[in-house]
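Recall that a protein's primary structure is simply its ordered list of amino acids. Everything else, from secondary elements to tertiary packing, is in principle encoded there. The following example makes that idea concrete.
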Amino acid sequence: MLTIFAMAAALATAAQNGGEWQDFGAGPDGVRVRVNLDSIAPGTQGPEAMVRLSHARPAAGQAAQSDYRSIFDCSARTVARLRMVDLDANGAVTWRDENGQQATPLNAPAGTPLGQVLDLVCETAAG
């Protein structure tokens, strides 16, 4: 149990401190995907990492960027997510939940930006 809390704290710290973010570009939906390389870790439910999704033109009331604690299912190519932080276009925090708010899981098909993140996270956490 302590390990889970320690990992959640490390992921939250990686989001707050910046760390090194690798940009995987935007998919067909226009959403840019980045992963915090310092946050990649094996987890009890699968590899984990902090993933940032950015919207070039967010809809009214939607954050320009959101950071998600993401848990990767490498074989099913899916990503379970907890929304941790919302940021405005300048990177200022507009919303935060230290425990994370459940978000809709995503598919991560090969060749897409999120699929490339899944491949990197799964390879790095296994290595």
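Residues 4-8, 11-15 have pLDDT under 50 and may be disordered. The CA atoms of residues 80 and 105 lie 5 Å apart.
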